[in-house]
Amino acid sequence: MHHLPKIGLTAALLLLLVPFQQVKSQETSIQDLSKRLEKALNSQSNNLTSLTQFIQGKNYDFSLLLSNGEDSNLADRYQQFFTRFPNTKWVVTPSIPLKDGRASLIVTVTGSQETDSHKYSLEAYQRLALKINKMKVTSKEIISAHSILKSINKPLSLTINIPDVVLTGTSYDVDIIIDQPLEESIVAGGLTNVTKEQIINQINPSINLAPMGGGGLFKSVQAPKSPGSQTWAALIAHPDGLISVTKRVRVVNKKEDMFP
What we know:
Elements lengths: L2 H14 L9 H16 L7 H7 L7 H4 L7 H11 L4 E7 L7 E13 L2 E15 L4 E16 L5 E4 L3 E3 L3 E8 L9 E7 L1 H5 L9 E2 L4 E7 L5 E11 L2 E12 L8
Parallel strand pairs: 6-12
Antiparallel strand pairs: 1-2, 2-3, 3-4, 4-12, 5-7, 7-10, 8-9, 8-11, 11-12
Helix pairs in contact: 1-5, 2-3
């Protein structure tokens, strides 16, 4: 049961550290960037060759992404991910700029994997804000991110009601709802806070499962008193299989920062 959340954390890690760069004019370059990055990530070779060529392009500075101190083995992480999900499809699209002028990108990834008697399906989403100066990415911020990994025998849809951003010190709800009626099925679930170190080092979090009522997992949690982020990992054991959900929540101390 612990293998599923670990794969989910791998997806979260990949999106957490996904590389980005920029060129001259914001509007023109963000379009070019999204197309180039999507092409590199979807390379049929499913290895790092295209991505490396993209990183080392003559007109770009990609150094922030592979030497930002977060993960010295990022290249290995990418290779492991491509090996685990060889048919992954990446979509990178420009989003509306933030109110402070930063460019924004949306990255989505879908994929599947079959191992022995298990079949996994992955979907993940991330919106990033990029600050660029003289053709160089000087900072990046994750505005919202989540991933869903399923190992189930038939389609099962979820509704995830978890805010993208909260104020420091406030309480908020983490709700993961199973859309189909459960009838007499017994479903168990659990939720845990995942540290940044656990994500980077792919340390499998311990999630205690308990019977769920009301058709989903409903928890009230507390935001930290300092700004930053929280990452939650949930595991749901359904009669048709397992579902792993990861969600990153931004934590800010000013209301005006809640809507970038």
